[in-house]
Amino acid sequence: MSKNQTACCPDCGSRISFKKFVMLNNFSATNCECCNARIEISNRDKNAIMAGISGFISAASIIMGPFIGERSIQSWQAGLLGGICFATILVLYICRYAYRNSELNRICST
What we know:
Number of strands: 3
Distance between the termini: 32 Å
Mean pLDDT: 79
Largest sheet: 3 strands, antiparallel
Shape: elongated
Low-confidence stretches: none
Helix content: 55-70%
Number of helices: 3
Strand content: 5-15%
Order of helices and strands: HEEHHE
């Protein structure tokens, strides 16, 4: 698996846009823009664990940011801003990681 791999359609191999991929979750599916194949995520357990851990760490950084900011630099606003920035960067990094490493499969329609 190369580092530059992105989410692709399992049928035609065309790239799935990042916006469409981010809207895709464990309980939804999307259509390929080229061949109109119905696509879903196949590694649901891994994605659920990754979402839970990232949500916990993001919430903890936003909650602990003002406390740490007040104790270290006497400014809870700066701590809150730092916590929000950290949470945003973490979520963006995890979305990028999932976009490059997720396994997609085609839904067979009957």
